[in-house]
């Protein structure tokens, strides 16, 4: 079975991000399964706004582009704001563009209510149509009540580890399982010729 490289990008810029907890949990699961996994936290990166001009030359963008290009699959951990993926996630995709071409992409979403469960679809459609990304049909959608995040400002409280509802834990494990299964099939050598070559089309 071919090896696979997985990149997990935590897209929230919130110091108390719950989607970052989902990203870390998925990273721990994949690492335990001996999958080469890299976790990037956008809170640790200096990323410019996409201006369709000089922003593409920023040093951070080249590093992020290289990381995405090198990955076979990418999991995006995103918060949902105003019924949409957060601006930092969309800005990242705009800046790194073609690095997403034919990547398998999955989503880990953190939201405030039940009504935003389809909010990830515009971003998924954009990846699929613009870059032919293969979108995992299973994604994780977690509410605030599903994730315990200790308050770092409460210095008097006893240390409490971040925790995830067992149902969400199951969903993340199912997502990781689907990611591995689909990615291994996607990166295997395929016997079919490249359809864009005229000589190959004529031989079919």
Question: Which descriptors would you attach to this protein?
Answer:
9 strands, 37% helix, two-stranded antiparallel sheet, alpha/beta, single chain, 6 helices, Rossmann fold, 204 residues
How do you describe this structure in short?
The chain is an alpha/beta fold. It has six helices and nine strands. The relative contact order is 0.17.
Descriptive account of the structure:
This protein has about 200 residues and is an alpha/beta fold. The chain has one domain (about 5-150, about 160-204): 3-Layer(aba) Sandwich (Rossmann fold), CATH 3.40.50. Helices cover about 35% and strands about 20% of the residues. β3 and β4 form a beta hairpin. The radius of gyration is 18 Å and the shape is globular.
Strand and helix layout:
Blueprint: E1 5-10, H1 19-32, E2 36-41, H2 59-70, E3 73-81, E4 84-85, H3 87-96, E5 104-111, H4 121-131, E6 134-135, E7 140-143, E8 147-148, E9 163-164, H5 166-187, H6 198-203
Parallel strand pairs: 1-2, 1-3, 3-5, 5-6, 5-7
Antiparallel strand pairs: 3-4, 8-9
Helix pairs in contact: 1-5
How would you describe the shape?
globular
CATH C-level:
Alpha Beta
- SSE run: EHEHEEHEHEEEEHH
Average pLDDT confidence is: 88
Report the uncertain regions. 155-161, 199-204
Helical proportion, percent range: 25-40%
Report the β-strand fraction as a percent range. Answer: 15-25%
Radius of gyration: 18 Å
Here the CATH topology equals Rossmann fold
Number of domains: 1
CATH superfamily: Flavodoxin domain
Number of strands: 9
């Amino acid at each position: 079975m071919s090896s696979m490289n997985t990149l997990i990008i935590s897209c929230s810029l919130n110091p108390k991000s719950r989607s970052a907890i989902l990203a870390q949990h998925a990273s721990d699961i994949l690492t335990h399964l001996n999958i080469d996994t890299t976790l990037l936290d956008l809170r640790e990166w200096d990323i410019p706004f996409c201006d369709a001009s000089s922003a593409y030359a920023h040093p951070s963008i080249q590093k992020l582009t290289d990381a995405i290009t090198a990955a076979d699959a990418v999991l995006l951990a995103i918060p949902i704001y105003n019924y949409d993926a957060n601006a930092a996630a969309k800005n990242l995709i705009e800046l790194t563009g073609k690095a997403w071409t034919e990547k398998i992409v999955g989503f880990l979403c953190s939201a405030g209510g039940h009504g935003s469960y389809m909010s990830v679809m515009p971003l998924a459609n954009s990846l699929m149509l613009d870059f032919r990304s293969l979108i995992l049909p299973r994604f994780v959608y977690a509410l605030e009540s599903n994730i315990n995040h200790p308050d770092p400002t409460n210095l008097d409280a006893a240390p409490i580890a971040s925790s995830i509802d067992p149902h969400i834990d199951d969903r993340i494990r199912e997502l990781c399982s689907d990611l591995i299964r689909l990615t291994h099939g996607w990166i295997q050598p395929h016997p079919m010729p490249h359809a864009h070559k005229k000589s190959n089309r004529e031989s079919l």
